[in-house]
Amino acid sequence: MAYNQVIDLSNVQQPESIPEPTMRYAVKGVLPVTHGGTGNTTGATETALKLATARKLKTNLAATDDATFDGSADQEVIPVAGVLPVEHGGTGSSTKNFVELDGHTRIYVDAVNGDDGNDGFTEATAVKTIKRGVGIINNHAIAVNPTTETPAHILYVMPGTYSGDDNTLTFYGDKLSSAMPLCIYIKGDVIFSGLALTVNVGGSVIFIPNGDGAKVTFTAPSNASFLIRVINSSLLAFNANLDVVVDCQNIASNGSVFYCSHNAYLSLSSNITVKNATMGSGQLFYSTLQGLITNNASFTLQNNTFNHIFNVGYGCTVNNSTTNVSATNSTVTRFASVNALSLVATSSRATWASSTIETADVTSNGGVVVG
Description:
By secondary structure, the protein is mainly beta. It has two domains: 1-49, no CATH class; 102-370. The chain has helices spanning 130-139, 349-354; strands at residues 5-8, 25-28, 57-60, 75-79, 107-109, 143-144, 151-157, 160-163, 169-172, 182-186, 189-193, 197-200, 204-209, 215-219, 224-231, 235-238, 243-247, 251-261, 265-268, 271-275, 278-288, 292-295, 298-302, 305-312, 317-320, 325-328, 331-339, 343-346, 362-364, 368-370. Strands 5, 6, 7, 10, 13, 16, 19, 22, 25, 28 and 30 form an eleven-stranded mixed β-sheet that branches. It starts with a strand and ends with a strand.
């Protein structure tokens, strides 16, 4: 077909007159945006308000490579750059994966109002179980003990009853040490029901009162051989001004309330009530293989039967400076049996003896009772 005239769209001007309708025109060039065109030869406009077909966009926190998007398909691997600041819920750092609040990390556990789907970083977002709280600490938290300003893991336990497998009280030293202890702050009335407490393999756990009226109660699981145990170079401490109740009714007759062995250290400085023990061949304290017990606690005995207050094996030291002991319906056969280069040093024998039935101590192989 022959054309009478060629129109250059890239240089189109307002016509002075309407072309003759009988003339044929050829078109070349690109119609610019300013005259209603796209400004290109692909037909893609630069001023479109939306895509003809809706697409999905998804960020991926694990992605590291740059992503492109031309609108022809969904893009679900968009990487994220930078760090999320603390004020927007992040850590403010690319090298740490915990949230610092007031210089230390608080992990809150609340048996009544908590939810294990929460992050545990505030009382309002507390988790529900000890297992979940300790799991967050083991995986994330490096903190500062607000009492001593030393590095620590912090677990705030709110009032309530904690029981079952998800509230296990077994702590290991792979995450805890004397340099990085687990500080368990007890608020109000906390009950660990049917749970024996163990600190093992170099772990370090400190129970601390969180405000006035802090009280923690331990009840043993059925036929337990112990209620509170610290072993294998570990540390367990109960700080002053914390009321501790140990209900021994489920402990086996030859068991122990407090058990310490293998270079472990048990420190008691609390107000401790021991009740309902029927342990005619068992003991209040058992220590062996270079265990160390420091006992500065105030004791109340209620409805107990023990064979020994202290049953001490090889290479152990017990520093018993308790000066306040009261007893109701409690019988102790013997104050101490001390064996094999061990020492029980006490300044409170008379106080214990005045509230129990006591026969002679037993010492052998270099065991010594002083005081």
